[in-house]
Amino acid sequence: MIANLHSHLEGRVRPATAAELAVELGLPGADWERALELDAPADLTVYLAKVAASYPFFAEPAALARITREAVVDAAADGQDYLELRFGPTTHVRPGTDLDAVVAAACAGLAEGVAESGIRAGLVLAALRHEGGETARAVAEAAVRADGVVGFDLAGDELRFPELEPYAPAFGIAAAGGLGLTCHAAEAAPGAAALQALDLLGVSRIGHGAHVAGDPAVLRAVAERGAVIEICPTSNVFTGAVASVAAHPAPVFVEAGVRVVLGDDNPRQTGSPLSRERTIAASLGVDLAALDAASLDAAFLTDSERRALTG
After folding, report:
1. What does the buried/exposed string (b/e) look like for 194-227 if buried means 16 or more CB atoms within 10 Å of the residue's CB?
2. What is the pTM of this model?
3. What residue numbers bound the domain in which 138 lies?
4. At the N or C end, where does the chain have fewer CB atoms within 10 A?
């Protein structure tokens, strides 16, 4: 089973769709392929600003549903069997479109994409660091209410908003509702942020976690606790988390006994879909069979869904 366990909806907007929606929504014309892609590596703040260039296209529920459907179809075309598609729904709330309506539109698009493509997919709702704990609680409550949401995440600018304590109640709500838990951590912050996410938020997976490799004590603790790190090598270069693909810490994780799974993060911005990330992971010494087994185990699936994917 080829699984994509870390991929953002806002990073999967087709340029052709962007051009059409720009006309419908009255946005200025642009070369959207160029406008949505990163020019060169920088830091996480610059990276997120480029991702935010897609936000205007999510202004209407129908557009959001379309982008979600196309994201699932494109994942299938890339050879993926299972996609966890995460996004920050509060970013797309507008007058007349509340949080539940945003989530419902994404869920509808996801269902359409699954029906069209034949792959399995689920949504992971992300609270955003800069919006604070109360908003995170609202996102968690919306996630628990929705049909099609399988997980809960904390994303956003870890450089500017490193604290995790304010989000613990939201993760408690998501856990009580049966959702899988993951958190972007130790991507821009030191490796200890990953342990904080495990301890304070109760997550089973760490998004990116690049700086875990630089702290032997944290690396050992992550391995001992069976936590899974979602690696996205190309994206980590663009955010400045690693200096180059060759310098990615995936081999360090594997050597330490840390299980890794793979995602393509924001493939429109980086130009690197999961199929390319798998090639990169293999070049780093990651055993793809072991990665696929870890992905099946760590995916936010029920046991019956897991059996269906392997049957």
Report:
1. bbbbbebbebbbbbbbbbbbebeebbebbbeeeb
2. 0.96
3. 3-310
4. C
